[in-house]
Every structure is written in structure tokens, then in C-alpha cells.
Amino acid sequence: MNFLKTLFACAAIMFGVAMCQPVAADEIEAIYQQDIDKQATAAWIQESTNNKISPSIAKRITNSVVHHAQRTGIEVKTILGIIMKESTFNAKAKNGYGAVGLMQVVPRYHKDKIAGRDITRIETNIEVGTTILKNCLDASGNKTRALSCYSGNKVSKVGKYKSKVNAFGKDYQNFRKEFVSTSLAANTKSSSTNRKS
Asked: What is the pTM for the complete model shown?
């Protein structure tokens, strides 16, 4: 394990403890991998929107998506696919039906989940949107019916919506795979150079 990975893990741990404690190599690797995954996600968001989303906003969206993916058990690629389809990552997006924000939540139907908060706020919108999707999944038992429930389309007409969500999700996966591979290769090269010097 190279010096930079160890230093990164130590710094990350210091946010939660007073001093840096010894960490197992697999824990350091997991922290490092999660950081690379988040970097890949934020970079994909920016690229997918032709850099109309600032790095800081892309990072906020990424952190919220990852958090709520872990909370709900919904794949990151599915949440990102829905956001891309629904709003193209525009947190202020609105439509004629009254849907608002990244995941196009309709406030009048979800007042209990919104609880008086600003639904255009990134973190709130993703929290509420993923909760709605999770409820749809739990009630229907499969992704097609869940996407039908979420989008308001009939099951027989949800095909195009599902195809778009899946296509965006696949694009994200391919981008992430390439990003991670390139990052790890660069890290290995850097480690090799550090050992030689």
C-alpha cells in the first residue's frame, strides 16, 4: 500500500477520531475505492450535462445518491438514470404536472415525506425521491412495475422510460469502469515512481 493511500485513509479516519489509529489494509483499500467511485460519479454527472453542473454541485449530488443508495438498497446507476431522465440534473426543474427537482417529486402527493422542507434542495429531493422509489419497489416486487409506479406511466407504457433509465445507467457504469481503471493505473505508476526515487 503506497504512502498516498495510507495518508488518505488516515486523514479520512481523523474526521471521526482524535488521532490516527492503525488501519487494516483492506479497510484502507475500501476507503480508497469508495473515494474513486465518488470521483467517477461526479465526473460522469459533469460530462453527461456538458459541464453545466459545477464540481461542487456534482459532488453534493454524488454524496446524496451514494448515501441513499446504501439506505434503500437501490443501485446507484438506477438513481442516476432516473435523475438524468427526469431532470438532466437540474435541481430547479419543474414540469406542468407539478413535479419538482432532480427526481421530479410531486409535492402534493408526498407532503408527509417532504415534511415542510425545500424540495428543490438536492439532499431533500434525492432523499424523498429514493424513498418513493423504494416504496414502489417494495409494493410491486420488480423494477418494471416500480418504474411504472414512480413515473406515473402504465406498466404497458413504461418501456421507453425504463429503456432510457437503463441506458443512462449503463453509460454511467461504462464511464465509471474506465475512470476507475485509469485512476488505478495512474496510482500504480505513481507508486512505482515513488519507490524508485
From this structure: 0.81
Q: Which residues pair with 94 in a beta bridge?
A: 100
pLDDT above 90 covers a percentage of the chain that reads: 73
C-alpha cell at 115: 415534511
| 89 CB burial (10 A radius; 0-12, 13-18, 19+) | buried
Q: How many domains does the chain have?
A: 1
Q: State the alpha helices, DSSP H only, in 49-75.
A: 55-72
Task: Read off the amino acid at residue 124.
Answer: T
> Which three cell numbers, joined as nine digits, stand for 134?
423504494
String of b and e for 131-150 (b: at least 16 CB within 10 Å)?
Answer: bbbbbbbeebeebeebbbbb
CB 36 within 8 A of CB 64: no
Q: How far apart are CA 97 and CA 17, in angstroms?
A: 48
State the residue range of the domain holding 72. 3-196
**The domain spanning residue 192 has which CATH number?**
1.10.530
The pLDDT tens digits for 42-71 are 999 999 999 999 999 999 999 999 999 999
Cell of 59: 459532488
